[in-house]
Design a protein that fits this description.
The complex is a heterodimer. Chain A has five helices and four strands; from the N terminus they run αβααααβββ. Chain A has helices spanning about 5, 40-45, 50-60, 70-75, 80-90, and strands at about 25-30, 90-100, 105-110, 115. In chain A, about 40% of the residues are buried. The chains are: A alpha+beta, B alpha/beta.
């Protein structure tokens, strides 16, 4: 599971208000290099919840991201920032661990890179 | 595959959190996915081996007894009852368990990319985030290499197949997507909704697809049509009994229209009522006409199949002197038949590898066909009639239908989410 997916995942247990983001408890992390594509990254800046990305990256051991994303005008020229964004968004993989709901403490397991987000009967 | 190469380079330092070595591999184009079809065997997609299932009077009585005994065994469910997001038993048994058991075999037959779906995906802007809900074996993930695909499916074995191809996937329920709103640029639901057994669940799944895409985003949905191009296929499917349909299908079904209900030919009385109160429980108790007791036969006729749909009315049909009226009613009923079990033949050598089949056979979920050397599973389908998908989608407030078509026995629709939040 990459942080681009983590940035979308939320807890869908009935009645939960604070669904997003899920806290990452990693057990095994893998890094897989991927081709750098600045256009895609600029498209993603608008979608990404920045704080969730920064916190997620930190929990995976990557602390290079700034606390705030630069504004769009400076983005074009800031390759160093884009590289860090690229690395955290697309190259860090959570192979084993859990995604934890802040409100309920419910852990969604991640095994072999696959999160299991299915709910139990009583959570629906 | 490029990602396989990456994996092998990384295995030696798999527990580290930062990369230090060089050996960077430049991927072609966008490079997220190198979905390679070279690994797929060139298998002719055979239609599922077909068996004609017929029914006779004795079997109907036996079936009624089986249904009665099954209903008595069932436990009661509290009336606080099941939300639309709870999975009904019929889906657990005849969708989820089946796909889990047949996943690798199923995947090996699902490699041809449907041109209409490919065209939709290729029309999306570069860099789009595309959500595939019910992605199965991941056939469409990565189809447009300039886009980023995220797939989910309720079947872990199928998701594992996707993951092994390097795709970004998770296990989730299409009726309750674990996604925050508006993240996706587009979403697809290819041959999924027909496995949902109530209208409310089918509608909910459409609402979920719309919810998770951005304002202005597109959603493509395809479902099996009741109006099949190859009508001989219908003779190989098991229609679920009229009694089942009455108890199971919600308002708006053609089966529940006054025209049908007031017609004496549709009186349903021979299958006893169950004691359990909820709809979903009844669906579990009133299946198709006892699958185990129906003999398989090579040949069968449409007329015999017609009787199997409404066995209860046989007596009244015999008494009726106006034969034209009888035939019309049978035809009308056949046309409105939308609930089916569709067989899947899992060859014995595949079944052994899967391992799930031993328990499926023991519990009666599947049966052996020695003649074909396969374990036969049944998959539950609610096939869609003309206009049904549109009707369902038009009930979703903040989306518009922008395209609708029928292609290769599927009803298809493209929705566009409203550009501004209308809440």
């Amino acid at each position: 599971m990459r942080l681009i997916v983590h940035n979308m995942l939320s807890c869908n247990i009935r009645g939960v208000a604070n669904k997003f983001p899920l806290r990452i408890e990693p057990k095994k992390i893998i890094v897989k290099e991927v081709d750098f594509n600045p256009d895609f990254l600029k498209h993603m800046i608008a979608k990404i919840d920045w704080k969730a990305l920064v916190d997620g990256a930190r929990s995976m051991g990557y602390t290079e991201l700034p606390d705030h994303a630069p504004d769009t005008t400076t983005l074009e020229s800031d390759e160093s920032f884009l590289r860090k964004f690229h690395h955290s968004l697309l190259e860090l993989h959570l192979e084993e661990g859990s995604l934890v709901c802040s409100e309920t403490g419910r852990k969604f397991p991640v095994n072999k890179g696959i999160p299991n987000m299915l709910l139990h009967e009583d959570e629906v | 595959m490029i990602l396989d190469v990456l994996r092998s380079i990384r295995t030696s330092s798999s527990s580290s959190t930062t990369t230090t070595t060089g050996g960077r591999i430049i991927l072609q184009s966008f490079g997220f996915y190198s979905v390679s079809t070279s690994k797929m065997r060139d298998i002719k997609v055979k239609s599922d081996s077909r068996e004609l299932i017929t029914s006779s009077d004795e079997e109907e009585e036996a079936a009624a007894q089986i249904i009665e005994s099954v209903s008595i065994r069932e436990k009661e469910i509290s009336s606080s009852s099941l939300s639309v997001k709870s999975t009904p038993e019929i889906e657990k048994k005849y969708v989820h368990r089946v796909y889990d058991a047949i996943a690798p075999h199923f995947s090996s037959t699902r490699f041809a990319k449907w041109p209409k779906v490919a065209a939709f995906l290729e029309s999306l802007p570069c860099g789009s985030v595309i959500l595939d809900a019910g992605c199965g074996n991941g056939k469409y993930l990565g189809l447009n290499p300039s886009c980023f695909f995220i797939g989910c499916d309720i079947s872990h074995p199928l998701i594992k197949i996707c993951s092994d191809k390097g795709q970004e996937v998770l296990v989730a329920d299409a009726v309750n997507l674990p996604y925050r709103e508006e993240f996706g640029d587009a979403a697809i639901s290819i041959a999924v909704l027909h496995h949902l057994s109530t209208e409310n669940r089918r509608k909910k799944a459409i609402e979920e697809l719309v919810r998770v895409v951005k304002p202005g985003g597109f959603v493509l949905i395809t479902v099996w049509a009741a109006e099949q191009e190859d009508t001989s296929l219908l003779t190989k499917w098991t229609p679920l009994s009229a009694k089942y349909v009455e108890e199971w299908v919600g308002p708006g079904s053609p089966m529940n229209s006054p025209h049908v209900r007031n017609n004496p030919f549709f009186s349903l009385e021979s299958i006893p009522e169950t004691e359990v109160s909820t709809k979903e429980q009844k669906a579990e108790n009133s299946p198709f006409i006892g699958l185990e007791s129906i003999p398989e036969s090579e040949e069968g006729t449409r007329e015999q199949k017609g009787e199997s749909i409404i066995p209860e009315t046989k007596a009244s049909i015999v008494e009726q002197k106006d034969e034209n009226c009888v035939e019309e009613s049978l035809e009308a009923l056949k046309k409105s038949q939308q609930e089916y079990f569709v067989p899947w033949h899992l060859p014995y050598h595949r079944a052994e590898v899967s391992g799930a089949s031993a328990s499926a056979l023991a519990s009666g979920l599947a049966k052996k066909d020695d003649r074909k050397g396969a374990v036969v599973y049944n998959r539950y389908y609610h096939v869609f009639s003309e206009g049904e998908l549109e009707r369902l989608a038009s009930g979703v407030g903040n989306a518009m239908i922008v395209d609708r078509f029928y292609d290769k026995s599927n009803w298809c629709i493209v929705l566009q989410k409203a550009a501004f939040n209308q809440d």
